[in-house]
Amino acid sequence: MKDIFYEYIQNLQDRITSTLEAIDGNASFKEDLWKRPEGGGGRTRVIENGAVFEKGGVNISGVHGKLPKSMQAYFKVGEVDFFACGLSLVLHPKNPMAPTVHANWRYFEMYDDAGTIIDQWFGGGQDLTPYYLFEEDAQHFHNTCKIACDKHNPEFYPTYKKRCDDYFYNAHRNEGRGIGGLFFDYCKASETMSMEQWYNFVTEVGDSFLEAYVPIVEKRKDLPYTPEQRNWQEIRRGRYVEFNLVHDKGTLFGLKTNGRIESILMSLPPHVQWVYNHTPKAGSPEEKLIDVLARPVDWV
Fold first, then answer.
1. pTM, whole model, 2 decimals?
2. Which of 92, 7, 14 is nearest to 59 (CA)?
C-alpha cells in the first residue's frame, strides 16, 4: 500500500504543479529534493512572485525510522518503527479576491520488531480560505467535495465537512480559518471499509482537487482590487499563520519528527499583517466574511 500510494502522490504532484504553472503564466515551481538523516526524504516544489500565485508549495515526502519519543506518547505506543508519506499543498494567490487553498493526503504505517504492520491509516482533506466571500465559489468547492465523497459513502461528506469546520477553527479567535471543505483522519480497515477502499476514496478526493479549485482562481485572479482590500487580505493571512503555528497537527508532527523546516513552513504567506484590535466596518464585505467564519454554513 505504501508503495502504491507514494507513486500516486508523485503523479498527483506533477499534475497539480503543471496545471498551476499554466494558470500563472509567469512563474514556475522550483524543485528541491531533500533527504531526512533518519530515513526517507521528499520533493518540495515552491512557486513565488508569480502573476497569479504570490507564494505556493506542493510538497511530497516519504519518511521512515524509529518513532520519536514525543510521538510515541501521542499515539500511545512503545518503541516502534513508522513510515509516513503524503502530499501537502498551500497556495496563496496575489489577488485578494482569489482564495487561499490548502490540501493534504497522507498515509501512515507502524511496525513491530519483526517488521509486521501493527497499524495503518489514511488521512487528508482540502479546504478553502477566502478573503472576500463569493457564495458561488463556496458552493462550487463544497459541491465538488460532496460529489467525490458520494461515490463512496453518502455519509462521508456531512461527516468530514463537520470535522473540517471543527478542526480548522481558531478557538482563540472564535472563528474558522476559512469556509472549510473536508477533513478525515485515522481511516482504518474495518468491517465496512478495506484499506483498498480507503485508498480509492482518498485518491478520489485527491483527483477532485483541481476541479474544486481551478475554476475559482481562474474566475477571480484578474478582478480589480484596492490597496485597502490588499491590507485586509494580509490581516486575514495573519489568522492563517496563527492557526498553522498554534493548532495544526501536521506542523506539530513535522517539528517533532525532525521534519524539514523549510517544507513545514512553506505554508506561510510572504506578506502578513497583525493590526491591533482590527474590526471591519459594519455592513462591509469584510464583516460579511467574519460573520460566516463565526458560524459554519451548509454550502451544498
1. 0.95
2. 14
